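Render this sequence as a predicted structure.
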Amino acid sequence: MGQQPQQTGIWTNVAGFAISPDGSYMVLSMRLGERTLLYESRFQHSVWSEPQPIHAINSHGGGFSSIGGPVLSHDNRFLYFHADFEGGEGGFDIYFSERQQGQWGRPQSVGTTINSAEDELYPAISPQGNRLIFSRNRDESDVRKPRRAPVCKKLFVSNMDAQGNWTDPIPMHPDINRACEYGPWLANDNKTLYFSAIDQDNHRDGYNLFVSTETIEGIWSVPRLISSVASGETLINPRIAGEYLYFLMQTEGRRETEGSVFRIPLPQDYSPVQVFQYKGIVRDALNNMPLEAEIRVLEPLTFNTKGTYLSDQQTGTFSIPLPDHAAYMVEVRKEGYSTGSYFLDFTGDKKIKGPENIGLFNRTELTIRMLNARYQEPVDALIQARRITSNRQGSNGDPAGERIQPQRTDTGIYSISLPVGEKYQLIVQKEHYHRLELPIDISGDVMFSSIHKKLILTPQTSRIALSVMNDDTGEAVDAEVWFVNTSRDYRKRADADPGQPGRYTGNLHHGETYDIVVTGPEGYAFHSQTLRYGEELSGQQSLELDIRLIPLKAGRVTKLNNILFAENSANLLRSSFSELDRLADLMKVHAAMNIEILVSKPEGNSKAHSARTADRQAEAIMNYLSEKGIDPDRITYRGRAIPAGEEGTGPAEDAERSVRFKIKAM
């Protein structure tokens, strides 16, 4: 003889019950005269506590309704039940309540797709929350049953579609609905159905407990009697908690039907498919606060949704029952936060489980590296991120159109923190560069807390055209023309214009400083000048320059460009070397050329001091040329202080603040 069922609690007026998966909490539908109401009890110190009424549900609609058939969702977050609330669709309808901050909320209807003018009773919800099985009364004219047995029911099923709406209910498979069924309950494997039924071949036994397994979607095995608890009493409302099978046993009292909760160790032959409880907690990755998030379980090959769950609003915890010997994709989502995606595999001996601690972030750190398109070197710029959507009631309430400024962390490197769940327009501006706009979309699935982007800024360029000519005759002269960028180690040769002697072109970047270096054929002095390109354009799209090459003749004076000294000294700066090297090369080519170095300097407060400084600077130039291999005997020098009233009035070679050389002999 097998183990006998043991009563749970001391109550005798139970009409229905729900029990948590761990067996520590019950919701009881208890008879009070002609009505049934919901109570809750907890298993504490080895006993069940005194049942307490659930006022938020019992008082709904004025507190005159009858409420029964309770069933808990797998995570105890939702309570489903039937009730005849005023304003329903007719008779008994199915409702649910959500637990928030430890209290059950106001009842909500499951909707008119399921609720009708008939009675909808004894709901059973799948662990994924996307399948609802319930009972409707049926015609008993062809059913054999004891007179004491409750009214016969027929089981219906509705599935939730991709939009979250319940589909039209349909009767369950005929192998389930054989004659007289009652009070279904769906196990955590979502495949094993427990319910009460009257076997028509043994109808005098009344309601007993049966189990059936879904072999393929919508197809169920022939129900099996759980013989270890079969009796002549009315056994209804099977539930599983822990290692026990719980059920309600009804007996006929003198005046009314009595009902008590019993349990028995779950027989192995009637156990559901083994499930793993994937447990964890969802937190804010930045402040570690718990989050209520949607957790979706997907089939990894088809990505069909197998179930949708929610982590607890107060604790962030979740527990998801997943049948063994299968693989799953799990996605964790919360509006305004990143998305977590994980692969779980229970097909082998070594189970691949998901993380227990899931951190979602609500801001993404965007790191931007700005590079010059031509030189591929870092460049600073003015950067803004403009919000172009406002899809959420964000914690900071930032409006669309708001501009978010980044922080500069190094040359050309910026960091900007962007709220997740929005779209942005990244705007990059820099003087003398083309404006850059780039969309940044983090409104969808965001997996990473940081994004790195390399942005290329294209300099604005304009065309420059040079006409090289003989300074004496104005005739075109073919030459070698170079644009030397003095801001960096870069030089570019100008393009000769075919068919136009002495005509050269190029495209120069705005805002850059260039030396234009022109080397003519033998018999001409070189020419160089400094150009701050962009400033000289004055809004024009191109620049035209005439370059006049001076023939090498005795008495001709040529200005030297970029000859600079340390302040009030004769120490040449390095920027002077290129120009002086060109002069040295010219003198090497023309070995008979002798020159005089001429340095003009404003006299300032002391004419004598300015003259001495100018003379020493001219001497320094001679010494430099000597170090480059030019015989000092070929060079003379002279420095001169220019009186303030004489500036711009005397001969050109004397009046300018400049450095020149004068050909003494050829």
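Summary. The chain is about 5% helix and 45% strand. The chain has a mean pLDDT of 89.
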